[in-house]
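Researcher: Next entry in the queue.
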Amino acid sequence: MTQHYELLMIFPVSLDEAKREAATNKIFDLISSNEGKVGEPDVWGNQQLAFEISHQTNGFYVLVEFDLDAEKIKKLDADMRLMPEMLRYLITRKQVKSEATLAKEKEIQQKIADRKSEEAKQEEEAKEKQIAEAAAEERKKEEAVKAAKKDAGKISLDDLDEKLDEILKEEV
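Model: Structure for this entry, 172 residues:
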């Protein structure tokens, strides 16, 4: 049964381009000779390795997808182990996504994006509400202070009557 695979190859940076292309072509020929189909390689180029491999800190990465019978993948793996040009390689089985699966994933991503934008909008509205409430509270405080100042300078009518009575009672 034919499966879809992904192959990531890491070559030493010191390996010249001609030898690197010869090695990748050799691998592609191995896949093709086992009745496999090779896709277009994706050359990532020189990248830093996560850890040192054979005293190398950088590697030249090449990624390719291919289809091959599941029973023949072991032979390909054994042949690749014998290639001294390569630092490391990784073969993983990759699930081919149908149009329906891609559409469903896109719909889910859209829902997530919509939910995030709605949450951001709600957060923004809550912040605006807090700012408006704080401004209203500040205005109330200012008005209370103004009213207190205004009232502090005024005398009540009762106090004014008493003062007038005192003045009138005094002898001139």
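Model: The CA atoms of residues 85 and 125 lie 60 Å apart.
Researcher: Noted, moving on.
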